[in-house]
Structures are given as structure tokens and as C-alpha cells.
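Propose amino acids for all 269 sites.
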């Protein structure tokens, strides 16, 4: 079974075997998806223009994936459609000493987008129930509480006018191997090759279990998770852009009313 449209109703259990990372739907080849993707990107730009002008809501896009899963590619090829003036990308790395001296959401909350803005999280607070869980960086009793903390935090954002949408870019283990090999042998990609990624790869199964629990426990009406079949980059771009269009269409975005009597102003020579 392949689940569409890439999500489940809140409360249902995500089983990654029900999602096919190779899925491309009605589109068989890259060029079949070209027109639809381009239309989506154009629409995203229009919607963002209204978001910015209206200065009332914000959008937070959370991107999670295994290494080489395509987070950077999605930002470049999909979120690249937005006007950079209204976008703020935050890449979450291993926490600094100062960050570790605070609660795990401290650094995350500071990066939440202000009204009018699109915030993009390249990795996020979900690392605190993913890498932290897989590597025992915190005791189980600590990370287990975090699902509730995350849900409360995301609801706070929603109540404050921030629409939250979360993507797990889902590639297969074989596809990751192919992409890591590609990084290893292509001079322009070698800078991305990190031997540490190979250690993470060895824990693939642990990561999938951690993802399944995070997706299941934190898939809420106000902050849904989407599992994007991402083995084909063109399909990933199509699906992410489609979900973003749908999400933004539901945000009640409008240009603000003009100032009163706008017609009456004489433009001086
Ligand atoms: P790329 O996929 O292009 O390599 P990246 O997001 O992996 O980009 P890196 O600097 O290679 O960027 O990795 C960031 C690392 O920081 C990841 O291994 C991630 O698991 C780790 N990290 C992020 N947040 C946390 C956290 N809260 N606790 C521990 N490690 C974290
Ligand atoms: Mg990395």
C-alpha cells in the first residue's frame, strides 16, 4: 500500500513500510512533472507575496531527512521560489555548550519566523528525539517527555499565527548509498562527503524506528507531518511544492486593505 497524500490523520500510526520512497504517482519521468512543478513554484511566490504584505501570519517549514535525503535540494529548488527578503533559513547543528545549558527548545523558539515571514528549519527540534535517541545523548526518561513538549510548543506557534508544516524526505537505504557514492566521486560534491554520515547509516533501522515514533506522536492538526517519497528528486520537488501550495492556500492570505482615500493623494512633481 502506498499512502497518499503523504500524510495520515492525527493519532494514526506511521509505518514507513506503507510509504514507498520510489513513488512518483501519475508522473513517470522528470519531464512529465515539469509543468506542474513550475506552476506550483509560481503560485508559492504569489502566496508568499501576500503573506509578507499582510504581515499577519507566518509559515514554518520543518525539513528532516537522513543524510543525503535532499533537504538542501528541496530548499534550493522549491523554497528558492520565494523572495529571499521574506525567508529565513536556520540549519540546526549539534548544540553548542550554551545551547546545551538550556532546555532543548530554547534555540528553536528563537528561530521561529516573525509575522510575514517564511521560516525554514533545515533539521530542527526533532533531532532531539532522533539523533539524541539513537545515540543515547540524553536518558530515555528525558527524550521521552519531548514528544509532549514538542506538541505543546507547536500548538503555541499555531495559536500565535504560525502555520507549521513538517516534511520527512524519505529515501531508501539503497538510494542513500548511491548518493553517498556520488558525493565521494564527484569533485563538486566531495565537500559534502562526511565520513560521520557512514556511521549514521549503520544505524538506519534505529533511525527509522525513531522517525516512526516522532511522526506518529507529533502529527497534529495544527502541525502535520508529510512523508515525501524522495528517491526521485523531481518527485520530491513536485510533492513538497504541492503540499506547500495547499498549506498556504488554506492560510487565508490576502493583500491588506489600502490606506483610506488612497486615490486622493497627489503625487508631487
Ligand atoms: P548535510 O545533510 O548536507 O550533510 P547536515 O544537516 O547533515 O547537512 P551537518 O553539519 O553535516 O549538516 O550535520 C549537522 C549534525 O548536527 C547532524 O549530524 C545532526 O544530527 C546534528 N544535530 C542537529 N541537532 C542536534 C541535536 N539537537 N543534538 C545532537 N546533534 C544534533
Ligand atoms: Mg551531514
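Proposal:
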Amino acid at each position: 500500500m502506498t499512502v497518499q497524500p503523504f500524510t495520515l490523520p492525527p493519532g494514526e500510526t506511521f509505518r514507513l513500510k506503507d510509504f514507498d520512497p520510489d513513488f512518483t504517482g501519475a508522473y513517470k519521468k522528470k519531464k512529465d512533472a515539469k509543468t506542474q512543478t513550475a506552476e506550483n513554484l509560481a503560485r508559492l511566490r504569489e502566496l508568499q507575496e501576500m503573506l509578507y504584505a499582510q504581515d499577519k501570519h507566518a509559515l514554518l517549514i520543518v525539513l528532516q531527512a537522513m543524510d543525503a535525503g535532499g533537504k538542501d535540494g528541496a530548499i534550493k529548488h522549491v523554497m528558492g521560489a520565494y523572495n529571499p527578503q521574506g525567508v529565513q533559513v536556520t540549519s540546526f547543528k549539534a548544540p553548542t555548550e550554551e545551547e546545551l545549558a538550556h532546555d532543548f527548545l530554547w534555540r528553536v523558539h528563537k528561530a521561529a519566523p516573525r509575522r510575514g515571514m517564511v521560516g525554514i528549519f533545515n533539521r530542527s527540534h526533532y533531532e532531539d528525539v532522533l539523533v539524541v535517541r539513537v545515540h543515547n545523548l540524553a536518558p530515555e526518561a528525558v527524550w521521552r517527555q519531548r514528544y509532549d513538549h514538542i506538541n505543546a510548543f507547536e500548538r503555541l506557534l499555531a495559536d500565535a499565527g504560525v502555520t507549521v508544516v513538517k516534511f520527512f524526505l524519505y529515501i531508501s537505504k539503497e538510494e542513500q548509498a548511491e548518493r553517498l557514492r556520488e558525493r565521494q566521486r564527484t569533485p563538486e560534491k566531495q565537500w559534502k562527503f562526511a565520513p560521520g554520515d557512514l556511521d549514521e547509516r549503520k544505524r538506519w533501522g534505529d533511525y527509522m524506528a525513531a522517525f516512526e515514533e516522532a511522526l506518529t506522536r507529533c502529527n497534529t492538526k495544527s502541525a502535520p507531518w508529510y512523508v515525501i517519497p524522495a528517491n526521485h528528486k523531481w518527485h520530491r520537488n513536485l510533492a513538497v511544492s504541492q503540499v506547500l501550495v495547499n498549506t498556504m492556500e488554506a492560510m487565508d492570505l490576502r493583500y491588506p486593505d489600502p490606506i483610506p482615500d488612497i486615490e486622493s493623494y497627489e503625487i508631487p512633481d
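The mean pLDDT is 97. Residues 16 and 208 are 8 Å apart (CA to CA).
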